[in-house]
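Structure ticket #2291
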Amino acid sequence: MNRRNDALKGVEQQLLALVTVPGRSVDPSSLAGPRHLFRAVAYIQRDGDPQPQVGIDSDGDLQCRWAADGLELVVTVEERGAGYVWALDAAGSELLYAEWKPSDQPHELWGTAAQLLRSPREMADAC
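Resolution: structure written out below.
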């Protein structure tokens, strides 16, 4: 199994642990957020990318956070599947902020987020 699949498996296990908290019912509506977050991570994450940290933010929304070479990339998804991507550079300047609705297919946005995780060498090779 390659590293990308290993990373996605780890994210999937972390998300399941977050939504299967004892005493919290698991039904299809409670899985919308995790499904949307997993789709976003699966689209963004590639071999060689850092493993994201998965957790719950201060509002109770699911979140994945990457840190690489001074970049901070955050993908947050609400319970019903709406979400946003936010990225800062090492100086704290905002590189990206965009939201999506549950019915959106934000692949272009996720592709932009994935590009931010690429190393400087990969970016130079792409030009």
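Closing remark: The beta strands are 53-56, 62-68, 71-77, 83-88, 94-100.
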